Amino acid sequence: MHGRNGAPKLAHGGWVCALLALLLVSGPTFADARSDAKRHFHDGMAMIAAGQLERGIAELKQAYAIKPHPDVLFDIAKAYVDLGNIPEALIYFRQYVATDPVDKDQVVSVMQRLQAAITPGQGGAAPLPPVQPSTAQNAEAQRLIAQLQALIAQSQNQVVGPQKPGAPAATPKPTANAEDEMFEESTISAETRATAQQIASELSPSRADAEDIFEEQVVTASSRSSSEVRAPASLTIITEDEIRLSGAATVPEILRRVPGIDVAEMNPSDTNISFRGFNRRLANKVLVLVDGRSVYEDFLGGTFWPIIDVSIPDIQRIEVVRGPGSALYGANAFAGVINIITKSGAGDTGVRLFGQGGTQNTALGGVSVGARDGKLSYRTTIAYDRADKWTKDAPDGSTSLVPQFPQPNRSRETERGDTRLTYDFGKTQVTVAGGYTNAAFEVVSIGALRTFEAVGQTGFARFEIDSGATKIKAFWNAQRLNAGPEYAPEGIISLQDTVRSDLVDLSAQTGFDFKALGTHHLDLGAGYRFKGITWAYLATHDGNSVNYTENHFNAFLQDDWQVTKKLSFALSYRVDRDPLLAAQSVTAGGLVHSPRGTLLYEFQPEQVLRFTVGTAFRVPTFFESYADLFAPIPNEPALGLRFQGDQSLRPEQMLQAELGYRGRIGTFQPDVVVYTERVSDLITDGVLVQPGSPSQAVDPRTGQFVIGDTGFANQPDKFFGFGAEVGGKWSPADGVDLIANYSWEKMIACTPSGGGKTTCTSDTSIPNQTSSVLSNTAEHKLNLIALWRSKTGFDLGMDVHFVSGVTWVENSFDTSRPGGLLFTAYPLDAYTMINGKVGYRFFNDKISAGVAVYNLLDDEHRENPFGEKIGRRVMFTASGAF
Question: pLDDT tens for residues 241-280?
């Protein structure tokens, strides 16, 4: 254990350091294939530029062996032209053309001219075999691609298909046969070499002149994809290898490694997440997306993690944007955006089985099938997930609290299936996707309401057209749930009710380039969102209806303005129209404006300074605006509180400024951010107002006696935060990745004190409404991650999370106190959580098995006063690919 703000004990530091040292001295390994391939590619292109052609080609071949990419074949072929080995260049050009690239016709023309140039010097060599028409359905083209894959696999002593990160560093070179004898290497004259170089110079520049082909293209931080280094926001990318080696069973477990994140795990089903402060029960400050589709619960706020329609093995990567995101995503992208990007059928083919099981009756597993047939690719997943509570909410046989749902010890249980189909028309891709989940899960609610359970069905449908700068997207989220408190005394009024929620979102954007004091890439778009909710927790209207609908509209533009090669700006602006804000005249015309501006200065290649100023907002939810709920007091069933919404609530507002540095120094990728923020109009629990007359003391819907009315209100305080996030990723050898980050944050609150004066404080010693916001965030957070994937099949992943002590201030109702609210401080100790996974891969990586441990040292702790105690959990994992 630890002191309240003390550092973690160092008794375990010896073996942790020894383990890190083992990673550095171990034999050949493969961890993050993308990073390893990127390193070899960079080295190869640098050597080629320096005239060391043969060594450069060898490095490019190594990059291709680790992670195949068609553009590497292109660059190898051009390097062979410069070397004067035209026959070998033609081999690699031919392999490149077999992938059906967009510049296929141009490359074929160059190949034919190169063959003609060397024919006189080859004693009448055979003519170049004709390249088949660029249609993926053409049988001959398919035969050629199959032959190419077989030849690559033969040269690498691997199975046919995309190479896995653990594949040997082999060179894809076809074996000679009758058809390829014309490519036998021979010496050519200097004149012929010069002619060949002149012909090849007509091709588009080497892919190294564009974005690094192994650089993860970020799609969440801007309206256009960009490299990680040049992203116009604080950004964290969690790769597929990091996810797999974490052994995590849920997405929130994976997210603990993000700098600046605040995590409050309540139980196996419910985890509250925020960035840079403002965490709470039913956290509502972060927008979560799955493949760009919002899974934020607009009717209540927050994210229900068990029903986000994602299985961990289906995730390709997670992009996390820390800081305001409303300039791109509108309402609710307040403290940050999490975009979970899943695998496609084209990139992950075959049948894959996965499963995990262990402590607390935890079991999850599933099967996914992906394939590509010509232009059509698809992926389908069927999965199951179950976990029981860590501690019981009530003792067995309790008569004071009676379970309201079957299986009272269950925390989450889902059965789900989804499918995605993509058709590639060349420059345009069309995607159709859908999913269905049968779910049961628990959520720790706000205020005096505690743990709720929801049982029912959810589903989604998604449609996208992607044609370069033009994109059209639509999705529908549907929920049909029966929800209410998990436990209640006998004889009390039931709060169980059905929730029917529908959200339909349509958006379109396009863009174009122009020149004016530099180059501008301008994107503009518009969107529409329909929200519908039927819920008895809301006030009746139009007779006796509890059905509410809203129609929201938005428009945005973004200008990526490159002034010089080193200096650029990313300028974004979005306006949203909220119908309730318009109807109540809360803002002019119901409009909320969200500008953001970023200056990027690349003072050295891949060394970027960034300065960003942005805004964000969160609109009141349906429950905050329209609630009308009588909540009985457990020990006094005839008495209760009435929660009432406020339709005049103002949206929460944030203004944040950041100064950051992100770069790449050899195999080290540093990332530093300092920021300041101002937050106003936070929506919090309102005061308790006692009935003013006997008629107001009776709830008209239930006939029960009301001891007080409460609801929600905008807090008058303005909150100012200051913080820093420092971290980096080091890849000292192929297969070894070491990641570390540290976050520090301090907040103060400024309250109007009359006479135009303002009083500011950071004191959290007195429990009140202000300290309930200031004190819920740990001042210090440290994450250490080590990944090791050996060539012999051994895998190891370990992450260490230290969080300093924190005091949560929670409120309850007390009619004897002014305002009817009682604030109580709950000190929570600092903790160190170590998670790890050890695994082994069999049969050329087709089968893997391992053991994952969560909270290895069993540092039992709570992350919220009303959350369950978190102890050690052990999971056995297995997967297979066929």
Answer: 899 999 999 999 999 999 999 999 999 999 999 999 999 8
CA separation for the pair 45, 605 (Å, rounded): 14
**Residue scoring higher pLDDT (206 or 242):** 242
Question: Which positions ≥6 away from 227 have C-beta within 8 Å?
Answer: 211, 212, 215, 216, 217, 218
The amino acid that residue 149 corresponds to is Q
Place 132 in a pLDDT band, splitting at 50, 70 and 90: very low
- C-beta separation of 160 from 181 below 8 A: no
**What ranges in 610-730 are assigned the alpha helix state H?**
622-626
Look up residue 209 and give its DSSP letter.
Answer: G
Residue-wise pLDDT tens digits, 816-846: 777 778 889 999 999 999 999 999 999 888 9
Cα–Cα distance, 800 to 173 (Å, whole number): 43
Q: Can you tell me which residue has the tokens 């009024």? A: 493
Phi, psi of 180 (to 5 degrees): -105, 10
DSSP E strands in 664-763: the ranges are: 668-680, 683-685, 705-714, 718-733, 736-754, 757-761
Contact 851, 874 (CB under 8 A): yes
Instruction: Give the separation between CA 187 and CA 533, rounded to whole angstroms.
Output: 76
Give the tokens for residue 839: 């695994």
> CB of 340 within 8 A of CB of 293?
no
Q: Which of 278, 324, 277, 223 is nearest to 594 (CA)?
A: 324
Q: Which secondary structure element, helix H or strand E, spans residue 463, and what is its range? A: strand 451-467
Q: Tell how strand 636-644 and strand 705-714 pair up.
A: parallel
